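Why does residue order matter? Because the sequence determines the fold. Keep that principle in mind as you read this record.
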Amino acid sequence: MITIEQGKNYADLYANRVMRNKKKYPTSIIKSVERYRKWKKRKDIWFDVDKANEMLDFVQSFVRHVKGPLAGELISLEEWEMFIFANMYGWQHKNEKGNVVRVIREAYGQVPKKNGKTIIAAGALLYAMYGEGERGADCYCAATDYEQAQNAAEPIAQAIENSEPLLKNTQIYKGINGSTSGAMYRYSIDGLVYQNKFKVLTKNTKGLEGKNPYFVLNDELHAQENMDMYDNLKSAQISREQPMMLNISTAGKGSSSVGMRVYKYAKHVLKEDDDDSLFVYIAEPNRGYDWEDRKVWEMVNPNIGVSVTMEQLETEFKKAQQSAHSKSEFLSKHLNVFVNGAENYFEREQIEHILVDDLGELENERCFIGLDLSKVNDLTCVSLNFPTYDEEGKAILKVKQMYFIPSDNIDFREKEDNVPYSDLVERGFVTLCDGKMIDQDMVLEYIIECMNLYDVQQINYDPAMSQKLIEKCENLGLDCIVVNQYPAVMNAMIDDSELLIYEKRLVTDNPLLVYCALNMVVITNINGMKGPSKRQSKKKIDGFVAFLVAHKESMFQMEDINQDQFDELLDEIYR
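Structure:
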């Protein structure tokens, strides 16, 4: 740990390092450093080293790691973190009343995932609550939803609990399942009692009326979709003499998020230097960057070698090569680049090789059925997943599918979806149902045909609109397993299918599966788990969903067999 020395300027330490090694740092960080140096020449503001160091010393004296291999140890700030804190709290000027106050009222920090955002967030909020000497400091931890807010609030509460001086006069408030709802620090000065507090806040900002937050932590701004919370919290701080709002985030997806809008303004300020109240630190690649260049990875991850390793990034990079979605995840989370919000999961060159002319002989082969039903607009699909082996004994998956669509208005459907359904009917990949609705009896007849032809092990189904059909299937003696369309359920199948496609171990003879795969957009929950989204996907994805539903079982049936086992299998077949 670097001991904070009185009178030493740690912002200078980082600034000098950056300017001596410009090639190692992105332009966005160099501009932040150049802005700091420019400010040092001004006469209307000044940098108070002692004020900056008080904050740095507080963090390193009272805030402990609560997770990972360093859990329990006091935090040791990295130089770039010191630069952020020193700028936030070091710059001073006289206000209209003649009082010396901070220049910075808002900070925007954007760094990739796992680069110590939690330390910055916890350190700043706890300093506002305990270290600055602000009486009656109301602090808020705000996020787009409750779960995200907990990711920021729980480490703050644990840091208080793990520091005897902070915990001494503090009451921590817990919610459901031990979640953190806030904390209150009560103390007295000259016989008068005061209370500083922090509160977890999600979406509902009505309770802010009449209040004046001293400190606001906006966590992961990229996940917020409208400006109400940000604007309300910002305006609520107006009566404070030197409030602070800390926006800490990674890059996100979509051009309409709060994060994107605040990011654009932060970039403007970094370029024009026309808003003294905002400090900006953004670690992002330069224009024209090569996302495969390891030097770029190092440039934009300020905690490389500390909380982020090249080995971890290499692992994520391998995943990123498997699909368009995984690439956008890598770009946004690990390279800190904003990407389009509704990108399709797969790109054509990644998926088109799964289509083959012939799946070979499948009669009597074991298979697992996936069922995705619809009424009118969507496709109904029965997916038969056959886990088997290639000529070398390597596990592969053959997928045979049948789609059902209403015959009514078929010409319009072909134009709207840009799919030659009539031709696919003739080729045996689609079945037309008379009228405007899907005929579930026809779906049942097809399943019975499959039972006569193949060794059907079970049916996995999406519960939507399937109750009657499933009852009939159960009467046939089939095991029927419900598969809900939640990310917590679907994530494993999506990840495994992505790997199968990448390794060229998935094949189908039905072009509609390729069509549906190319249309698929996924949603990601707070824990990073993925699920298919029919709402966000602009065109039909039902066939790929049916495949995934069946794959909940078929993925556990795929194991390579060694040469001896394979020889025995061939002998059995051709004996």
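The domain at 10-335 is CATH 3.40.50.300 (Rossmann fold).
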